[in-house]
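Example record

The entry below shows one chain as it appears in the dataset: sequence first, then structure tokens.
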Amino acid sequence: MSSSPPASGFLVEHESANRTDGQALVFTTSTGEPIRRGTFRSRVWKPSPQRAGLPVALLFHDLRHSYATWLVSDGVPINDVAKVMGHEQTSTTSNRYTHSPAERDRRVSKSFAAFSPPPGND
């Protein structure tokens, strides 16, 4: 099993076109330089949940928790999920990064209860 999840063809092409100092970059500046964390957060991440009509309080790191939980919920063995997540111990994955379906369902319901589509997206 690969240590990283499969990427779409678009991402593979994008990565190969945006290599800097031997690193494959996904998010770059207009000049191809690595994007700074603060710039990514303010220009890409913070506006994204708002544009999607989701709670603005969502953190980028929340995606890791959701990803791990979805993998486990879909039946991927915890040791494989731990490897993809870069965890040495499966206990890190199961205790910190996956959430019980009941907890997940409660959080999803809460998020959708606060959801209202942006104007003009009927």
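Notes for this example: The mean pLDDT is 79. The radius of gyration is 17 Å.
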